[in-house]
Amino acid sequence: MRTAFYISDGTAITSEVFGHALLSLFPLEFEHQTISFVETIDKALEAKATINRACARSGEPALVFHTFVNNEIRAVIDSCDGIIYNFLEHFVSPLEAQLGITAKPIAHRTHCIHENSYDHRIDAVNFALANDDGSVITNYEDADIILVGVSRSGKTPSSLYLALQYGIKAANYPFTDDDMEELSLPHFLKAHKKKLFGLTIDAKRLIDIRENRLSHSKYSSARQCRLEVREVEKLYKKEKIPFINTTKFSVEEISAKILNKTGLQRYKY
Amino acid sequence: MRTAFYISDGTAITSEVFGHALLSLFPLEFEHQTISFVETIDKALEAKATINRACARSGEPALVFHTFVNNEIRAVIDSCDGIIYNFLEHFVSPLEAQLGITAKPIAHRTHCIHENSYDHRIDAVNFALANDDGSVITNYEDADIILVGVSRSGKTPSSLYLALQYGIKAANYPFTDDDMEELSLPHFLKAHKKKLFGLTIDAKRLIDIRENRLSHSKYSSARQCRLEVREVEKLYKKEKIPFINTTKFSVEEISAKILNKTGLQRYKY
């Protein structure tokens, strides 16, 4: 199997996203290998040897996606036996021309602690944890958004993703079995109605997820799952709470859809 | 101020990473705007109008970073008044030539729920939450890694990032004041010594963070912070636990360094 390398003098996250986006266009399997923090010539030589070994082993040149700030280190990687895909190279000159200034590459600028949004993001993670699953209902004043939905509809991972990636303070509140008789909006949520965003999920998928967690229980029964989904969707419509069905979406997609639908401002770009 | 747009028929996460990596090379401020899920010609026309308004407002062409799968929708965006940076375009042909097959773009392949790793990632998030902050010490058998360190050294956000981004099951355990007299490794950690990874932090930064959280307390006092940092670092060295100082690093960097130092295999690429 051919190996795809993602290499950088920093986290290599950008190289990974770039390479992954390209390779996902091809219905092929690859070995993936990240080599991060290649900050010295010695480390670059080591990385080059690793790439060359992979080329020799598979009999095909490895694909090397990289971003480097330092030209000497980059030159070492560029001299390997793999095929180099350097995405910065193609865009820096046209951008310099358009912006009328010269690029000033500084290592670790993309994923560093010095970006303005960093403290926001960590605060948001702490907020999401402290206000997960309805554990505390007194901080909603400080929330940017409050995700509501039945248990296992995707509230917690989405809250954490919104916090980590975008610095958005997301609380979440579960509607549980006890709420289901004549489901209505609790007063502490009603007071922050504009912040509410509903998640729902197909009953069939919900049964699967809950069976995995607590099999042969009332919680995971078809009857209960269908009841809960039906009741929350009725509530969302009655109270005009925007909502999405998460059945077919990843946390990345759920989070992006929430931003898209609410127009919520993120702190990180 | 010039506007940078990140546009896609999916989450636009790839466009954001791509555009952000390029713009971070330039010491300039930009307005940022993401337009995600542009899945129809109508939405593309709307996005185009938004871009054109931004160009007219600032008197300078907007920068438009995009990835599209559908050519007709892309053509609408390409006809806007902004400058288009289409990073897929430059790399698809050379990759096709190298791989010997034609690219088969499928919408939502990059950040979708169908990737093999998705359930791993959600399980890992649940694991990180259930095993946060030493709350449970009986699941370490199932952990891929156990982060240890003093309170506020970055354990929790790093555990969550490792889970969400890489599908790695990270537990974390805090050394607290009670442990500090003759700090030694508790037996339940000793049993999983190969999974331990230490975080440390400069006492000065730790004081700042703790002051912010609980000011004028023993917890945030210079004396206490210095003692805790000194003791855990002594322990890491004595027990040969690999560790990093997180003072100057973001969660992305901490997580990437942990992967780099441990060789831990991730589930998601």
How does this model look, in words?
The structure is a homodimer of 269-residue chains. Chain A contains ten helices and eight strands. The first copy, chain A, is α/β, with parallel strands linked by helices. Chain A folds into two domains: 3-99; 118-262, 3-Layer(aba) Sandwich (Rossmann fold). In chain A, the strands form two sheets. A four-stranded parallel sheet of chain A has the order 2-1-3-4, with helices on both faces. In chain A, strands 6-5-7-8 form a four-stranded parallel sheet, with helices on both faces. In chain A, helix 3 (71-78) links the parallel strand 3 (63-67) and strand 4. The longest helix of chain A has 18 residues, at 41-58. The first copy, chain A, is elongated and about 70 Å long. The interface between A and B is large, with 70 and 70 residues.
